[in-house]
């Protein structure tokens, strides 16, 4: 299955999804705000529409042309491929759940997953993951005074 999928097709498919999402969000803004003035949605709608059309064209062209396939891009080793998917899956998990779980909890889970893949042992991954998330929380929240997402417990 991976031998037939081209890298350009995957990237352009992601651009199509992103531009469709961007256009959908832009449609929620007012297009015109007065008799003579464009509203806050004027430029985002045009940008979203143009981006969607161009990304669809690029996606169709990527289906027709030869290119680098995913089996040449992804690591051959199953462990390395699993590490890659855990890393990207962990980042997506963090982005999706950080508002609900809070920075400390979501960051700890991400770091535990990454350290477990690196060390292979849970007894090292759990404390290292929690300590790393605590240090990041302390640096950003306390020292730099950056607003980080918190859960209802304040962490």
Key features of this structure:
155 residues; mainly alpha; 2 domains; 6 helices; 71% helix; 0% strand; flat
Kindly state the percentage of residues in helix.
over 70%
The biggest sheet amounts to:
none
Count the domains: 2
Shape: flat
Q: How does the helix and strand content classify structurally?
A: mainly alpha
Give helix and strand order, one letter per element, not per position: HHHHHH
The total of helices stands at: 6
Cα distance, first to last residue?
A: 43 Å
Radius of gyration: 21 Å
Average pLDDT value? Answer: 92
Strand content: under 5%
Low-confidence stretches: none
User: What is the count of β-strands?
Assistant: 0
What does this structure look like?
The protein is mainly alpha-helical and 155 residues long. The chain folds into two domains: 7-73; 78-143. 71% of the residues lie in helices and 0% in strands. It has helices at 7-26, 42-64, 70-73, 78-101, 103-119, 122-143. Helix 1 (7-26) packs antiparallel against helix 2 (42-64), helix 4 packs antiparallel against helix 5 and helix 5 (103-119) packs antiparallel against helix 6 (122-143). The protein is flat, with a radius of gyration of 21 Å.
Task: Please outline the helices and strands.
Elements: H1 7-26, H2 42-64, H3 70-73, H4 78-101, H5 103-119, H6 122-143
Helix pairs in contact: 1-2, 4-5, 5-6
């Amino acid at each position: 299955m991976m031998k037939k999928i081209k890298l350009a097709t995957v990237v352009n498919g992601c651009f199509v999804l992103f531009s469709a999402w961007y256009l959908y969000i832009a449609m929620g803004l007012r297009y015109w705000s007065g008799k003579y003035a464009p509203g806050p949605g004027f430029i985002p709608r045009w940008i979203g529409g143009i981006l969607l059309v161009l990304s669809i064209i690029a996606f169709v062209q990527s289906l027709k042309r030869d290119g680098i396939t995913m089996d040449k891009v992804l690591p051959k080793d199953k462990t390395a491929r699993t590490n890659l998917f855990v890393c990207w899956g962990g980042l997506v998990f963090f982005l999706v759940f950080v508002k609900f779980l809070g920075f400390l909890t979501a960051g700890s889970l991400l770091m535990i997953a990454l350290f477990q893949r690196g060390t292979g042992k849970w007894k090292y991954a759990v404390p290292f993951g929690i300590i790393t998330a605590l240090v990041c929380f302390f640096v950003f929240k306390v020292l730099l005074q950056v607003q980080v997402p918190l859960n209802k417990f304040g962490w």
